[in-house]
Amino acid sequence: MSKSKTLTSNAAPEIRSIFSSNLRQLCDNYGPISQLSSELGINRTQFNRYLSGNSFPRPDVLFRICKFFGLDARILLEPLDSLQVRCSNIMFHSDLEEFFHSATDLASQSLPTGFYKFIRGSFIYDDLFTCGLFKVYQKDGCTFVRGFEPKEVFIKQGLPCSRDRREFRGLFMTHGNGVAMLSSYKMSKTRIFTVLSSAPNVEKQFWFGFAALARDQSPVANRITRFVAEALENDVSTILSVARTQGYIEIDDVPPYHRQLLQLDSPIR
Question: Which residue of 7, 13, 22, 76 lies most exposed, with the fewest beta carbons within 10 A?
Fold first, then answer.
């Protein structure tokens, strides 16, 4: 008996059923089966046997399938829905779950979704501030952030300023009495860790704290700076106004309350 037949005959029917069901769901998001099997380097007839649950892939073929779809060997034993939700959140990894199990349990009441205006001290220029815009949204039980670094910031540093290069995304987490945001640019290995607390006794939602840029030491650049975010709710005119005026601003252009929250006269401790 061949090795592949041995593997197929020894695989319990319920395992083949789970795998074939998962594989069919994954294939639904792609083109014709003939094209997909060709991309995977698997004979179409044999691939159809996997889909029907009549056959089981060899370990090397299984590895190829998992790599193509960005999954792992749990595709054999667990329903795809639960597998994809767990894979989408690194905090649920078995090595981290006990330490970060509540990190992403961020209620929308504590950090409202929507657009935010932010002002932070420049990481490059001591006398300038960066004013920009980002969006907070929730998906799959997590709170995310997406935005674009102002074009002027990239131009002044001599960096390519295409939309793709300026895009940043990140994840919000619970942190002490406030929130923390870990973000990264789309085409960069640079990470920014921002810690924020809610400003008390104000009608609008303001958050203030600091942002830390993870990079090598430099005698002419900052790695930690103050940060303020203001929720813009659904005020379309204000959102568009901020979008049009993004970029570097001087201290005189920082609104009084934002300036107060930036605590410019106090060192970051």
Answer: 13
